[in-house]
Specification:
The protein is α+β, with helices and mostly antiparallel strands. It contains 21 helices and 22 strands. Strands 1, 2, 6, 7, 8, 9 and 20 form a seven-stranded mixed β-sheet that branches. Strands 14-15-16-17-13-18 form a six-stranded antiparallel β-sheet, with no helix packed on it. Helix 6 runs antiparallel to helix 8.
Length: 624
């Protein structure tokens, strides 16, 4: 039989699910191949979505018509907006999800997406002809052909787990590893290496003394991940719990260091700097006598808890003995121990910004295969890979996000331009245009782009247009509404801000840090009447309006900077320059430029080792 598809997606993790649904929703006949249909979008580590910079990525995925935000909102058991004490560029949504419900909701979406089909099997090799991928072969002996293939293998490529001296092959506990693909692509000329990540023990909540822990409740307000208009968080809302390690815990951990795969040479691959194991913490930060831990619920109807901050690959008895020295865990029972896992990844500088490989046509990579860590980073890549896999089948267009358009753009540009020397995770500090990439306006930045592509539907674009119209009405009202000192000064004094000496526009008053729309609203009846006209999503629109007013100067300044830098992105240089022959370039610059072969001068300027002087030389050569 001849099994033909437009797009094949290998792996049904967060990257694979976004890639498959994106390609299918755009109209490509798509096949999602997974080793286990009951583990679709499995949350392999903590049962949470979002967080610092990661929450912004999820909102961008949603704004572009992706699914992660919707699934998270519908399966959340706790929601918090992080960094609210800072400026809005730093605000980051985060939710705990019910792990089982998250899988079920994703499977419901995948099974009911038009043009999308599932096959349960393991891919063992690619069908390659003349440096072009034509399809895949599976362990059941089936060959599927396609015009685009997206690999989203997560930690499964030659996965090897470590618990002390015990080693188990697999991509996750009780799940087999994937073999054959790395070896085939390495032989075809790809550069590959190994990375390591880890996960903590899962704890039986019945064995925890919660009276000895600090409770951390969620927030119940209008915030959510998706810009669609629905009520989020219909499941029972649960608390997280905080405790700390102590010197007794650390002593027990030190007793096991000689058996730690991280320190006895058993693990040789690269681990995550920003999510270290507990044994790494006590060695690297030996002067600290305590480390904070978060106990996170795995679902509304389970006793299983995830112990955030206690990732470990120490022997089982060392993990349990250390945990028992924490007062709240003195009678601890665990479902399974923490473990480390090593897996293959591919140097992401071998990719184009579309996430198609440079070496082989029709082949796309997304997720941990590119050296990233995190569900959100994987999902963002999956969405872009899925869109471009579809475009690769049906047009000569490409979909690329710039660094000033999205955190997803920053993520992909960092990967393909700089590569990785450790598992890559997103931070707000990686983005030079943080004020432009706020979580409140990802829809304003990206939804029209998604609509033009065809992945965003009418309901979403209508909601965006309504929101923009209401925000503009409020801004125009505040810019034209005059305030007299005699009518407003008593309210201003109560709010601890200076009284007016002359008339001002309401917009000018709202730029004061002590003044918000909420606390001044009742003092200005006409403004309250204007606010009351907002038909839907009132709180969301008020917040977005206030941010636009208060940070207008900063936003405009950053837009100007971004526009200047974008000019360099318009100077195309790919395949136009023989870098090795330009002796006026530094040796490092010649080597790096030849290896990466950047698309534009802008990309060249971000390659580590390429100096401003090197860029000036290139501009002179180009006659600029």
């Amino acid at each position: 039989m001849d099994f033909k598809y437009d797009v094949i997606v290998v792996g049904a993790g967060h990257a694979g699910c976004e890639a498959a649904t994106a390609a299918a929703n755009l109209g490509s006949k798509t096949l999602l191949i997974t080793m286990d249909m009951n583990k679709i979008a499995q949350m392999s580590c903590n049962p949470a979505v979002g967080g610092i910079a990661k929450g912004q990525i999820v909102r961008e995925i949603d704004a572009l018509g992706g699914q992660m935000g919707i699934v998270t909102d519908k399966t959340a058991i706790q929601f918090r907006m992080l960094n609210k004490s800072k400026g809005p560029a730093m605000w980051s949504p985060r939710a705990q999800s019910d792990r089982a419900q998250f899988i079920l909701k994703w499977r419901e979406i995948v099974e009911n997406t038009n043009n999308l089909f599932i096959w349960q099997d393991a891919v063992t090799s690619l069908v390659i002809e003349n440096k072009t991928v034509k399809g895949v072969k599976t362990s059941l002996g089936v060959t599927f052909s396609a015009q685009s293939v997206v690999l989203t293998n997560g930690t499964f490529l030659n996965g090897l787990m470590h618990i002390g001296s015990t080693q188990l092959t697999g991509g996750r506990v009780a799940e087999p590893a994937s073999y054959g693909i790395t070896e085939q692509l390495r032989e075809a000329g790809f550069t590959t290496d190994r990375m390591k990540t880890g996960t903590p023990a899962r704890i039986d909540g019945r064995s925890v003394d919660f009276s000895l822990m600090e409770e951390q409740k969620g927030e119940e307000d209008f915030h959510k991940f998706s810009y669609l208009d629905f009520k989020p968080r219909t499941l029972k809302q649960l608390s997280c719990w905080i405790c700390n390690t102590n010197e007794e815990v650390h002593d027990k951990l030190r007793e096991g260091l000689e058996y730690s795969p991280l320190y006895n040479g058993q693990i040789k691959s690269i681990g995550p700097r920003y999510c270290p194991s507990i044994e790494t913490k006590i060695v690297t930060f030996s002067e600290k006598n305590s480390h904070q831990l978060f106990l996170e619920p795995e679902g509304e109807n389970t006793q299983e808890y995830y112990l955030n901050g206690f990732s470990s690959s120490l022997p089982l008895h060392n993990q349990i003995e250390a945990l028992e020295k924490i007062p709240a865990f003195r009678n601890i029972h665990i479902y399974r121990p923490g473990y480390a896992i090593e897996y293959d990844f591919f140097d992401p500088t071998q990719l184009k910004h579309t996430l198609e490989t440079k070496i082989m046509k029709n082949l796309f990579f997304a997720g941990q295969i590119n050296g990233t860590t995190g569900y959100e980073e994987a999902a963002g890549q999956g969405l872009i890979a899925g869109i471009n896999a579809h475009l690769n089948c049906h047009s000569d267009k490409e979909f690329i996000l710039r660094r000033d358009q999205a955190y997803i753009g920053v993520l992909i540009d960092d990967l393909v331009t700089k590569g990785v020397d450790e598992p890559y995770r997103m931070f707000t500090s990686r983005a030079e245009y943080r004020i432009l990439l706020r979580q409140d306006d990802a829809d304003v930045r990206l939804t029209q782009l998604g609509y033009d592509l065809g992945i965003v539907k009418e309901d979403r674009i209508n909601l965006l247009n309504e929101k923009k119209e209401e925000i503009n009405k409020l801004i125009e009202f505040t810019a034209n509404y005059p305030l007299k000192p005699e009518y407003i000064n008593s309210s201003l004094e109560k709010l601890g801000t200076s009284p007016l000496k002359q008339r001002v526009k309401l917009k000018d008053l709202l730029t004061r840090p002590q003044i918000s729309i909420e606390n001044i609203l009742d003092s200005i009846p006409a403004f309250k009447a204007e606010i009351d006209k907002i038909p839907n999503r009132k709180e969301e629109i008020i917040e977005a309006t206030e941010i636009r007013i208060k940070y207008d100067g900063y936003i405009k300044r950053e837009q100007l900077i971004a526009e200047k830098i974008t000019r360099l992105e318009n100077i195309l240089i790919k395949d136009k320059i023989d870098y090795e022959s330009i002796l006026s370039l530094s040796t490092e610059a010649r080597q790096k430029l030849a290896k990466i072969n950047p698309e534009t001068i802008g990309q060249a300027s971000r390659i580590p080792g390429v100096s401003p002087n090197d860029i000036s030389i290139l501009l002179v050569l180009l006659g600029r």
